[in-house]
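Reminder to self: tokens first, then the designed residues, so the page reads top to bottom the way the pipeline ran.
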């Protein structure tokens, strides 16, 4: 998970969830595959501070962009809901 300092909390939440769900207990997490990137930026067509978009590219990985940190947080929650239990 890659994120700027202002999204450290959202990145930590996502890392914790991914490690908790994907890694067997007692093993070290290793980076595999493309990154998940979090960013604050303009979400085209949406002015709400809670707006976000998920952009999935097989080569570049997943990018969650929100109008604000709140938008990124909601994007992280959507990603969590899409992952297997």
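Designed residues (85 positions):
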């Amino acid at each position: 998970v890659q994120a700027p300092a202002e999204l450290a909390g959202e990145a930590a939440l996502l890392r914790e969830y991914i490690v908790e769900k994907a890694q067997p207990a007692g093993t070290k997490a290793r980076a595999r595959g493309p990154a998940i990137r979090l960013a604050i930026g303009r979400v085209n067509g949406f002015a709400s501070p809670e707006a976000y978009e998920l952009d999935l590219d097989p080569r570049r990985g997943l990018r969650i962009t929100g109008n604000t940190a709140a938008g990124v947080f909601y994007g992280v929650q959507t990603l969590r809901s899409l992952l297997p239990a």
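Residues 8-22 form the longest helix (15 residues).
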